[in-house]
Amino acid sequence: MSEESVDQTKAGAEVSDSERLLFGGELAYDIGWNRHQGAWLALDLWAMARTLPKLVAIAVRLAHQADARALRTVWMAELGRGIAQAVGLVAVNVVLGHLLAGGSTVERLDRAVPALSAVAVTGGIGSLLRSASTSATGGLEPKVQRVATERYLSLVARVELSAIEDDEFHRLLDSAGYGADSARRMVKYCTAVLNSLISLVAAAGVLTVLHVALLPLLVAMTLPSAWSSLTIAKMRYVSFHQFVQHARAGQLLGRLLIDQQAAAEVRVHDVGPFLLTHFRGMAQTSEREQTRLAREAARKGLLADGATGLATIFTYGVLGVLLWTGGMELAVAGTAVLAIRTGSASLDQLVLQITDLHQEALFVADFEKLCVEATDRAIPTTGLDLPERVEGIRFEKVTFTYPGSTTPEPSLRDVDVTIPAGKIVALVGSNGSGKSTLVKLLCGLYQPDPGGGRVLWGDVDTAEADRSQIFGRVAMVAQDFYRWPFTARVNIGIGRSTGPMDDTAVEAAAAYAGADEVLAKLPRGLSTLLARGYRGGHQISGGQWQRLGIARARLRNAEVLIVDEPTSALDAVAEQRVFDQIRDLAGQGQTVILITHRLHSVRHADLIYVLDQGRVAESGTFEELMDPVTGTGAFRDAYLLQSRAYHPTVPAQSSGVKDDKQPAGEGV
Ligand SMILES: Nc1ncnc2c1ncn2[C@@H]1O[C@H](COP(=O)(O)OP(=O)(O)OP(=O)(O)O)[C@@H](O)[C@H]1O
Questions:
Q1: Is any atom of ligand 1 closer than 6 Å to the C-beta of 410?
Q2: HSE on the CB side for 341, CA within 13 Å?
Q3: Dihedral sign from CA coordinates of 486, 487, 492, 495
Q4: Residue 601 has what DSSP assignment?
Q5: Do residues 129 and 379 make contact, with C-beta atoms less than 8 angstroms apart?
Q6: Which of 554, 559, 579 is nearest to 492 (CA)?
Q7: Which residue among 161, 430, 433, 437 is best mutated to probe the pocket of ligand 1, counting the most ligand atoms within 8 A of its Cβ?
Q8: Eight-class DSSP state of 159
Q9: What is the pLDDT of residues 322-341, one digit of tens each?
Q10: Predicted local confidence at residue 638, as pLDDT
Q11: What is the DSSP letter of 380?
Q12: pLDDT at 174
C-alpha cells in the first residue's frame, strides 16, 4: 500500500485504511453518549451549575482522603488571600479618595499614608499566604492522583473477567485513567477558582457601592468568553470520547515498534516500515481532528472577543455618561475604572478556571462512573462456604457462551464432566474445542449461561459459592501463564503472595519443578530480575519460564492443580519429570486437571474427557477409549495418528518410570 493511500479519512466521516486493515473497522466513532449519559454532555451553563458542585465534591473528598491537613492549609490560605485582596482594594479606594480630594499634594499624601500602608501590608500578607497555598497544593496534588489511581485500580483488579474483556468497560477505563490525572489538576483549579471568586466578590462589592448599574455591565463583559470557553470544552470532551480507542490503538502501534517480544520479527520480517506507515496514518487522523478543534476554537474565540469588545465600549460609555451628567464623582469614577479592570480580569479568570475545572470534572465523573461500574461488576465477596474437603467437582449439563462474544455460538454445550478428588483427569480435544473454557468455569472465573446447567464443588454451586474460597483452592499453570517482569524470587513466590516470601519454600518449589537448575545459572540467583530493558535484567528461555511457572503452582500447594499444556516448551527429560511429578501429586491427594495435546501423556490419567466443538465427545480410562468396543474412536484415532508421527526406533527418554507402551521419542 502506498503511503499516500494509507489514510483517507474524510473529516472523520470515513474509516481510515489503517483502521480497516489493522483493526478491522472504525475505532474513532460517535459512541452516542447522549443516549445513556446525557447529563455529562449537556455542557450548558445550567447543567454545569447543577453538576459541578457534585463533581467538585468528589475531588474534595479525594483530597481530604489524601491529606486532610494540606487541604485545610490550602482553604485557609486562599480564604485569607481573598480577604487580603478585598481589604487591599478598599484601601486603594481610600487612597484614591484622599489623593483626588482638596488640599496641597503633601497634605493629600499625608492623609493617604495609613491607607497606603494598609495596601502594602495586605499585599505582603497576600504573598505569604500564596506561598503557603502553593506549597500545600504542590504536595496535595500527587497524593490526590495516587489516591484516585489506587481506588480505581483496586476496584478494577476485582471485577469479573467478563468486564475486563468488555470493550465498553475498557473505554471507561481509558477515560478513568485520565480522570485520576484530572482529579490532581482539579485541586489546582479549585484553588484558583476559590481565589478568583473571592477577589471577584471584593471587586463586585466595591462596584455595587460605587454605582449599582456597573455590576450587570461587568457581567455582560464576561458572558461571551464564558460561552466560547464552554463550547470549546464541550467539543474537546466529545472529541476525546470519540477518539479514545483510536488514540489507544495509535499508541499500541508506537509501542509495538519498540516491544521486546516483537523486536526479532520486526527486524527479520522488516515490519518496521509497515508499522511506521500505519502509525503515521493513524496519527494523521488524530491530527486532522486536532486541527478541526483548533479552528473551531479560534472561530469561537474571535466571536467572543468581538462581543466582549462591544460590551466593554458600552460599559465605559455608561461610565462617561455618568461623569458627564454629574451622576458620579471623578474620584469615584477612578476607583470604578480600577474595580472594573480588576473585576473583569477576575471574572474572565474565573470563567476560564471554571470551564477548565468543569472539563477536568467531566473526566472525574468518568472516573467515578468507572468506580461505580467496577463495584457493580466486582466478583462478590460473599457466598456459600465450600466443604472442608471437596469430594469432587461436577459439571451438570453446562452450556456457556462468552459474554459479549462476536459469535453467539456457545463455547460449551450440555457438558457433563465429573472430576473426582485426588485423581488425574485429562481434557483433550482439538484447538478451540473448549478445554481452557471448561477450566475457567471450574475456577469460577465465568458462570454457565442462565439456565445452562451448574458447576458444583461438592454440592455447592459455583454461582452461589464464595469465589475467593474457590480461587484459594486452585493452582494453575495456564498455557499463557504470566511472566512477571520481576525477580525470579517473585516469579515463584507470587504463587502465594499474601504473606512474606520465604526463600526456603521458594527454593523447595523450584527444586520440585526442576527450576533449581534454572536458578543456578542465573547471575544473581533468586534476586535476578527477569525482564530485559531494566538494569541487571536477564532473559530466560520459554522452557525455563515454564519450569518457574510450575514451581509457582507448586508453591501454591492447592487442592486442585490445573495444568494447561504444561510441557509444551520443555525438553524431553523435563517433560517426563513433570508427568512423574503430576502422578506423585495425585498420589498425595491433590486433584490434577491436565490439558494437553500430547496424547501419550494422558495414559496415566484416571479419567480422560475428549472435547469436540464444545461437547464431550467421549470419556473413560485410557484403556476404555483405546478399546474398539468401548471407545468411539475419537481418541483412539488421534492417538494412533500421533504415535505414527514419531520414529519407531528411537527409545523413549524416561526419568526412571519404565513404560514400554510409550510411543518412542514423542514429545521431544
Ligand atoms: N475470552 C474469550 N472470548 C470469546 N470467545 C472465546 C474466548 N476464549 C475462547 N473463546 C472461544 O471459545 C472456544 C473454545 O476456546 P478454548 O480456548 O476453550 O479452546 P481450547 O480447547 O482450550 O483450545 P486450544 O487447544 O487451542 O487451547 C473457541 O471457539 C474460542 O474462540
A1: no
A2: 7
A3: negative
A4: G
A5: no
A6: 554
A7: 437
A8: B
A9: 888 887 777 677 777 777 77
A10: 87
A11: P
A12: 79
